[in-house]
Amino acid sequence: MATEFTGTGDPARSMALLWRTGGDDGSRPGPRSALDVDGIVAAAVRLADAEGLAALSMRRVAADLGVAAMTLYTHVPGKGELVDLMLDSALGELYPDEAVVTSGAWRTRLRTLARANWDFFLRHPWALHLSTGRPPLGPGIMRKYELELRAVDGLGLSEIQMDLLVTLVNGFVRGTVGGVQEKADAERATGITEDQWWAATEPYVAQVFDAQRYPTAARVGPVAGEELGAYDSDRSFEFGLDRLLDGIGVLILDASR
């Protein structure tokens, strides 16, 4: 699936809509519409969750809402601004209980942070296909950033280290959960499940794991395959997260000296 970008719309319009300072409050002359920005964004998120960003268009969202496409444009100027609103709205779901990232040991806080972001991308896989080089600086993303910084506050780290640490954990989650999405995309594109693919390649396993040509792979591969089966995304996530937290522990120890 092709990558799309946040920040492709009019920045001023996006910011006004993100912070609801754009006058979309039903104060326009004429009959008051039952449709508002929140309803449009919610419909767009439902569509993207079900069919991906490729299916997203102003016309399609309007059809799902049972209104003319031009009706949407009176509230949201275009797809670029809509994508910004969608991501910020979805990010607002994170950490409904804010205390989970501000209480307990630092390792527990960061594990909770990582798992929450992992679950977020599983609920909204379309967000993985959004490049946020120009992040939509709305209340959802700013609340996320604030709470994640609090998770690493008070550990003796500098402000720069705190920011880099939050970025590191989020980058790890995004990269790891990408494997889940790639597998789902492959199954959708080929019509062949993971199990079917491995079953079809099984007759060639002896040839592939040739102990003469690939002695290390021939020793490790079958053992890992028997233990892990096909790619186990959740186990890879937990293993990688533990190693990442081990390294963060060294950083925190050094900062305390």
Description:
With 257 residues, the protein is mainly α. It has a domain at 143-256: Tetracycline Repressor, domain 2 (Orthogonal Bundle). It is built from 12 helices and 2 strands, in the order βααααααβαααααα. The chain has a two-stranded parallel ribbon. α1 (11-18) packs parallel to α5, α5 runs parallel beside α7 and α6 (106-123) packs parallel to α8 (159-190). The protein starts with a strand and ends with a helix. The model has no long low-confidence stretch (mean pLDDT 91).
Element pattern in H and E = EHHHHHHEHHHHHH
Low-confidence stretches: none
Sheet of most strands: 2 strands, parallel
| Tertiary shape | flat
Structural class: mainly alpha
Annotated CATH architecture of the domain at 143-256: Orthogonal Bundle
Q: Which range best describes the helical content: under 10%, 10-25%, 25-40%, 40-55%, 55-70% or over 70%? A: 55-70%
**What is the helix tally?**
12
Task: Give the strand order of the largest sheet, numbering strands 1, 2, ... along the chain.
Answer: 1-2
GO molecular function, one term: transcription cis-regulatory region binding
Organism: Blastococcus tunisiensis
Keywords: DNA-binding, Transcription, Transcription regulation
Pfam family, one: TetR_C_1
